[in-house]
Amino acid sequence: MRSDRSAYLYILPAAVIILTFHLLPVLTTLILSFYRYEVPSPPVFVGLYNYTTILTDSLFIKSIWNTVIYVVFTIPSTIFFSLLVAMLLNSNIKGVSFYRVVYFLPVITSVNAVALVWNWIYHPQKFGLLNYLLVFLTDFRNWAMGFFGAVPMVFTPIDYLGDPRYAMPAIILMSIWKGLGYNIIIFLAGLQNVPKFLYEAAEIDGAGVWEKFRNITWPLISPTTYFVLIMSTISSFQVFAQIFMMTPTGGPLNSTTVIVFYLYQKAFTNFQMGYASAVALILFSIIFFMTIIQKLFLEKKVHYS
C-alpha cells in the first residue's frame, strides 16, 4: 500500500504538467468554440454558430482543399524518397555516419533559416538559383541547337511563390526536402533490423533485387512504414511554419492557405478566438478520423514478427 502511494507521488509532477499544458487547453478550446469571443470583447454564447459559419465559409473549404493537396503530394513523395535513400545507405557503402548527418541537417535546421534559403532559390529574378539554372540551360540549349539552325528559346523567370500555379508545388518541394532526413533515419533503423541471412537465403534461391524487396524488406519494415505514415499524416495536416515563412499572406489567391494558417489568421489577425477554437476542433476531428481510418485498414497488413 505504501509503495502504491510512492508510485503516485512519482507520477504526480508529470500528471500536473500534462493536465496544465494539455488537458486544460483542450477543455478551454472546446468551451470557447461555442462562444463568439472577439478580443477584447467579452465572450458571448452562440452555440453551434461558429461551426455552421465555418462549414459555409468558402475560404475554409479552400483551405481544406489546399491541405489535402499538400498531404496527398507530400506524404507519398517523402516516404518513397526517404525509403530509397535509406536502402542506399544500408547497402554497405562507406561513410554511412557522414551521410546520416548530412541528410538529418535540414531536420534540425530552423524553419526560418530554411525559408531564407528557399526564398533565394525561388526568387523571381535571374539571381534566384532555380531561375538562374533554367536560364543557363536555356542559353546552353540555344547555343547547342544554334549549330543546327534551330529557333532560339526565350525563358522568362518565374515568380514561384507569387504565382498561384506554382506556390503550393514550391512549398511541397521544400517540405519534402526538409522532412526527408527524419524518415531516412527511421527507415534506416528498420532496415538494419532485417536479418541478413534472409537475403542470403533468397540470393541462393536466385531472387533478384525486386523479389528480395517485395518478399523480405517490405513486409519486415511494415511496422516502420506504418509509424512513418501515421506521423507524416499528422504533421502534414498541421503544416504551418513553411506556409507562414514562405507565403506570409497565404499565397496568391489564397493558394497556400491551409487549415492551420486559416486558424492562425482568425485567432491572431482577426482575434476571433471562439471561431478559431472551432476551427481547431474541426482540424482535430479530421486528423483523428484519418488516423482511425489508417489504423483500421493498414494495421492488419503490418507484420510485427
Automatic annotation (TrEMBL):
Subcellular location: Cell membrane
Main subcellular localisation: membrane
Superkingdom of this protein's organism: Bacteria
GO cellular component, one term: plasma membrane
Membrane-related topology note: Multi-pass membrane protein
Domain ABC transmembrane type-1: 64-294
Membrane-spanning parts: 7-35, 68-89, 101-120, 140-158, 170-191, 216-237, 244-264, 276-298
Coiled coil residues, start to end: none
Transport found in the keyword field: yes
Keyword terms, alphabetized: Cell membrane, Membrane, Transmembrane, Transmembrane helix, Transport
GO BP term, example: transmembrane transport
Protein family membership: Belongs to the binding-protein-dependent transport system permease family.
Protein name: Sugar ABC transporter permease
Organism: Candidatus Wallbacteria bacterium HGW-Wallbacteria-1
